[in-house]
Design goal:
Blueprint: E1 5-12, E2 18-25, E3 31-36, H1 47-54, E4 58-62, H2 83-96, E5 104-109, H3 111-122, E6 129-133, H4 147-165, E7 167-169, H5 170-173, E8 178-180, H6 181-193, H7 205-211, E9 215-221, H8 229-236, E10 243-249, H9 251-254, H10 268-285
Parallel strand pairs: 3-4, 3-5, 5-6, 6-9, 9-10
Antiparallel strand pairs: 1-2, 2-4, 7-8
Helix pairs in contact: 1-10, 3-7, 4-6
C-alpha cells in the first residue's frame, strides 16, 4: 500500500477550547478509528500507531486531550475541567468532525480506552466497535494484591494534592502530566467506587455503556501492571452486551518490553492485531451496509 496522507484540522469546543485533530488516511481506507490517548500523553506520540494501522487500510484520527500537545489550554489553579468538558464538548466535536462514510470505531489507550467506552455509550448509533489497548477500569477491586490495597490511598491522596496545588503535578510523580484537578477527581471517583460519572452533567455513562451491543477488540500487554487483565475485565463488565475478544501480547510479539507505554515505540504488532480484527468485522458486516 502506498504512503498514507497525514493532515491536521483545527477544531474547537463550545467554550472556546481549540485543538488539532491529526489524521493519517490511507489511499483507500476501509474503516475509521478515532483514537483517544492515555492520560498526559500528547496525540503526536501515537503517529507511529496511526501509520501502522493505515498500512492495513484503517484511517486513524488522533484526538488531543485538553491541556496536552496542540490544546490551546493548560491546566492551572484558575483553569479547571473534568470528564464533563471532555465528554460533552471536546470528544463530540472530534467525533462529529469525521465523515460518516465508513464504519467508525472508537479506541484508546489507558484513560483513552475508558472514555472511548463512555463516548460510545453516549453516541451508540455512530459507533461500529471499540478498539482498546492497555486499558481497564481504575477500580481498586479490579487489581491484584498488593496494588489492590494501595490504590484506595492513592485515590484520596492524588485529588487532595491536586486541590492543594491547583493542578496535579503528574510529571513529578511519574503519573500523567500537569493535570486538571477536576479530571483527577473524576478519575479517582471511578477508582474508589467503580462507577463512571461526569460530575456536573446529567449524563448516565453507566446506562449508555450497559446498552452498547458492539464488538470490542482489546489488547492486554503481558507486563502491564497499570492495565492488567483483571482491570480490563472490570471495564468490560460495564459493557455486558458487547462482544469482546481479548488478545495477549508479550515481549516476543512486540519486540519491546510488554509494559504500559513501550509498545508505542514499536506499534506494528498492536496495529496488526487490531487491524486484523477490525477488517474481519467489516467483512462480516459488509453485506448489511449499502
Amino acid at each position: 500500500m502506498s504512503a498514507s496522507a497525514t493532515r491536521e484540522e483545527l477544531l474547537s469546543a463550545r467554550d472556546g477550547h481549540r485543538w488539532t485533530l491529526a489524521s493519517v488516511v490511507p489511499p483507500t481506507p476501509r474503516t475509521r478509528l478515532l483514537w483517544l490517548p492515555a492520560l498526559g500523553v500528547a496525540a503526536r506520540h501515537y503517529l507511529p500507531l496511526a501509520h501502522a494501522l493505515a498500512s492495513h487500510g484503517v484511517a486513524v484520527h488522533l484526538h488531543e486531550w485538553r491541556g496536552n500537545g496542540s490544546s490551546s489550554l493548560r491546566a492551572a489553579r484558575d483553569r479547571d475541567w473534568g470528564y464533563a468538558e471532555l465528554l460533552t464538548g471536546d470528544l463530540p466535536a472530534s467525533l462529529h468532525a469525521l465523515p460518516d462514510d465508513l464504519p467508525l470505531w472508537l479506541g484508546g489507550h489507558s484513560l483513552g480506552g475508558q472514555l472511548a467506552c463512555c463516548l460510545a455509550g453516549a453516541h451508540p448509533h455512530r459507533v461500529s466497535g471499540l478498539a482498546l489497548v492497555a486499558t481497564g477500569t481504575p477500580h481498586w477491586r479490579s487489581f491484584p494484591a498488593p496494588l489492590r490495597w494501595l490504590l484506595p490511598l492513592a485515590y484520596r491522596l492524588l485529588p487532595w494534592l491536586a486541590r492543594r496545588q491547583g493542578v496535579l503535578q503528574g510529571r513529578r510523580l511519574g503519573f500523567g502530566g500537569t493535570e486538571a484537578r477536576g479530571l483527577i477527581a473524576d478519575w479517582a471517583a471511578v477508582g474508589r467506587s467503580g462507577h463512571y460519572a461526569a460530575a456536573g452533567t446529567t449524563l448516565d455513562l453507566e446506562a449508555g455503556m450497559a446498552a452498547l451491543a458492539v464488538p470490542v477488540q482489546a489488547v492486554v500487554l503481558a507486563d502491564d501492571w497499570l492495565g492488567p487483565l483483571s482491570s480490563l475485565r472490570g471495564l468490560l463488565a460495564h459493557l455486558p452486551h458487547a462482544h469482546a475478544e481479548i488478545q495477549h501480547l508479550d515481549r516476543a510479539r512486540l519486540q519491546v518490553h510488554a509494559d504500559h507505554f513501550s509498545w508505542m515505540r514499536s506499534p506494528d504488532a498492536v496495529a496488526a492485531t487490531l487491524a486484523s480484527r477490525l477488517m474481519e468485522r467489516i467483512s462480516v458486516e459488509s453485506p448489511k451496509r449499502c
